[in-house]
Design a protein that fits this description.
The complex is a heterodimer of chains A (115) and B (109).
Chain A lengths: L4 E3 L2 E4 L5 E6 L6 E7 L5 E8 L2 E5 L7 E4 L6 E5 L8 E8 L9 E2 L3 E5 L1
Parallel strand pairs in A: 2-11
Antiparallel strand pairs in A: 1-3, 3-8, 4-5, 4-9, 5-6, 7-8, 9-10, 9-11
Chain B lengths: L3 E3 L4 E4 L4 E7 L6 E7 L5 E7 L4 E3 L2 E6 L4 E6 L8 E8 L6 E2 L3 E6 L1
The chains are: A mainly beta (115), B mainly beta (109).
């Protein structure tokens, strides 16, 4: 079964440092997403990406965050200057079609710990 | 009011029991509805989509009441392997999924 692959599985970083979280979506999927889940809280939408541009973003996705599809297979989330409150599980997802929420596949996540 | 509201539980039930989870959503424009399952520190995985007519997948039955903005999930003959957090998820015909906080189920022998 096709998978969304995320690396690293766990990253520890110092406050103020930049981090890049990496994702390889399913190869024939065209729509890509980042979600995050702070420990003990709900899964929250960050951003969706299609055709090399952001199609929707949440209030959480401020100027500290950016996304990129640098080479046609990877999809990255960059946090420019990490804060303690950025500590969370970050899930990448992809889908074949947009709208309706159908056909999503989530990756296994990157646990980001900011110290 | 929360966009998607669920009883956090935990629900502790013996093997073989029937258990029901409820969920309410606030946006009447919501178009699509799902139940996801999340194991501890793992990614959400789709359990089933929820349709207005109600739908069943083996031991799992989902119901949607659009008028009351209410979604339910019934699990019959609970197994130990059903222990997880069950997430109610809606979509308002945009790209994003809106998650509830989840209901934790613990099935004991």
């Amino acid at each position: 079964e096709p998978e969304v692959t995320q690396t690293p599985s766990h990253q520890v970083t110092q406050m103020g440092q930049e981090v890049i979280l990496r994702c390889v979506p399913i190869s024939n999927h065209l729509y890509f997403y980042w979600y995050r889940q702070i420990l003990g809280q709900k899964v929250e939408f960050l951003v969706s990406f299609y055709n090399n541009e952001i199609s929707e973003k949440s209030e959480i996705f401020d100027d500290q965050f950016s996304v990129e599809r640098p080479d046609g297979s990877n999809f990255t989330l960059k946090i420019r200057s990490t804060k303690l409150e950025d500590s969370a599980m970050y899930f990448c997802a992809s889908s074949e079609a947009v709208g309706g929420g159908y056909g999503y596949t989530f990756g296994s996540g990157t646990r980001l710990t900011v110290v | 009011r929360k966009e998607v509201e669920q009883d956090p539980g935990p629900f502790n039930v013996p093997e073989g029991a029937t258990v029901a989870f409820n969920c309410t959503y606030s946006n009447s424009a919501s178009q699509s509805f799902f139940w996801y399952r999340q194991d501890c520190r793992k990614e959400p995985k789709l359990l089933m989509s929820v349709y207005s007519s109600g739908n069943e997948d083996g031991r799992f039955t989902a119901q949607l009441n659009r008028a009351s903005q209410y979604i339910s999930l019934l699990i019959r003959d609970s197994k130990l392997s059903d222990s997880a957090t069950y997430l109610c998820v809606v979509n308002v015909n945009t790209d994003k999924l809106i998650f509830g906080t989840g209901t934790r189920l613990q099935v004991f022998p």
